[in-house]
Amino acid sequence: MKNIYEVQSANKIRTAVIVAGFVVFVFLAVYILTNAFGYYMGYQPGGLGYFGMAFIVSGISSFFSYYYSDKIVLGISGARRANPQEDRLFTQVAENLSIGAGIPKPKLYVIEDSAPNAFATGRDPEHAVICVTTGLLSKLDRTELEGVMAHEISHIRNYDIRLMSVVSVMVGLVALLGDWFLRVRFFGGGRNRDSDSGSLGAIMIIVGIIFAILSPIIAQLIQLAISRRREFTADAGSVGITRQPQGLISALEKIASDTEPLEAANKATAHLYIVNPFKKSSNKAVATFAGLFNTHPPIPERIKALKSMA
Amino acid sequence: MNLIYVLLIIGVVLVFWVISTYNFFVSSKTRVGAAIQEIGNQLKRQAELIPNLESSAKGYLTHEKEIFNELTAARKAISSAVSSGNVNKMADAGKMLSDVLPKIQVVVESNPEIKGAEVVKDLMDQLRDTSDKVMYARRLMIDLTADYNVKLVTVPSSLVAGLFHFEKLKGFETPEDGAEMKVTGEEMKTPKVKL
């Protein structure tokens, strides 16, 4: 039995550990790749170097998706603005919970889809968006809806969208460097292959190839681990706002038992939703391995964590 | 020479930490103040809703004079509490109103004619919503006060608090005469529900 304060601080520590490990890994990978690159090409470019170039490319693309995340996602999923009269329960619950969480009221959007689901996006609490499906509004009662909305509001309050954008810049960085390295291996001939500094250079190049292949995958796996940890944190934050774990528990149960896939979701937006919108029928044998590639922790595990707070 | 640099860095980090901790205490205090105003704001909203309720439900609730008297009293209490700006008075006034609401609910539930009326349904919904809003406004204030008070007593932030003489925030006053720690014989019995 843990109280929510202990759960919240444990989650903070675990996120910090994963993020720290991630940063160390990215630096190591970048260091090895740029060095191997240098050995292979026979010289190190001045100025920004390979690292700088990769950082700029990855940074610019991620910055745009971060800065315009709300507009992009809403455009993709075909959401409409919530109407205070028509979607009264939704509006009321959002108002009340933002009072409780001490953030400005997010912009509210509705997707016309009978599969119950919800997501939050936007770069900071001032530009936050919460989007729910009509299925969610019709299938959940007020307490359950409060649980789900408080989960989304916790994501906003914890700046999870910002964290995940920073993480994806770094994943993009590693992926780009790895990609470039492999490309020049195949297409560009190294100029000074003979005047290489002997065995050290050869070792660096081999290590570089291994890193070029493996590190984008590893970086992505760590990214997913961070994403799953943030889901647990948002669940705990939801209980912190509503003090009613039962609401979120029964909402998750209802959403999980609903087999309909969400048509408005696609691979790019899947990680945003409160539960995975694709609902793969899980085969136990591959479940553990597949679990590594999930953006969300399995619902039974989330319910177990919530019950320990009840 | 190296030692000087190390000490310098430690010093700079320390100063930044003291500044950020100081800022935490100051800004928390301001946010608690804002949260108190928010409670007043929501109570006022609630109070303003009552005349609407009265005028549209009066036709149905002609026999329930007493409820209307209580409602009016609660409304007056809320306006005076909000203008005084005292948290505890606000809490008391809010409680007066939330005591009346179940009574209205009983009347509405027991009378199918009233229950069916769209106006009344709408108002019951509004009333639940507004009392939720007051509850969440109070929750925010309680949470902020708790954050502040925890930092005030835990090491190392307590050192900064001591340095600048920050004091404990009160939050809501609850009677702590020991009665809340006791369980009466009545409460030990399992409640029986007759259907």
Automatic annotation (TrEMBL), chain A:
The keyword Hydrolase belongs to this UniProt entry's keyword annotation: yes
E.C. designation(s): 3.4.24.-
Cofactor note: Binds 1 zinc ion per subunit.
List of residues binding Zn(2+): 151, 155, 231
Any one Pfam family match given in the protein's UniProt record, by short name: Peptidase_M48
Positions annotated as active site in the UniProt record: 152
GO molecular function: metalloendopeptidase activity; zinc ion binding
Membrane-spanning parts: 16-41, 47-68, 163-182, 202-222
Keywords, in A-Z order: Cell membrane, Hydrolase, Membrane, Metal-binding, Metalloprotease, Protease, Transmembrane, Transmembrane helix, Zinc
Gene Ontology terms: biological process: proteolysis
Compartments in which it is found: Cell membrane
Main location: membrane
Gene Ontology cellular component terms for the protein in this record: plasma membrane
The Peptidase M48 domain, residue ranges: 85-309
Bilayer topology term: Multi-pass membrane protein
Cofactor(s) the record lists: Zn(2+)
InterPro entries membership: HtpX_protease, Pept_M48_protease_HtpX, Peptidase_M48
Family: Belongs to the peptidase M48B family.
The protein's name: Protease HtpX homolog
Organism this protein belongs to: Candidatus Woesebacteria bacterium RIFOXYD1_FULL_43_18
Organism placement in taxonomy: Bacteria, Candidatus Woeseibacteriota
Gene name in the database record: htpX
Automatic annotation (TrEMBL), chain B:
Residue ranges crossing the lipid bilayer per the database entry: 6-25
Superkingdom of the organism of origin: Bacteria
Location of the protein in the cell: Membrane
Keywords: Membrane, Transmembrane, Transmembrane helix
Bilayer topology annotation: Single-pass membrane protein
Entry GO terms, CC: membrane
Family to which the UniProt record says this protein belongs: Belongs to the LemA family.
PANTHER family: PROTEIN LEMA (PTHR34478)
Protein's name in the database: LemA family protein
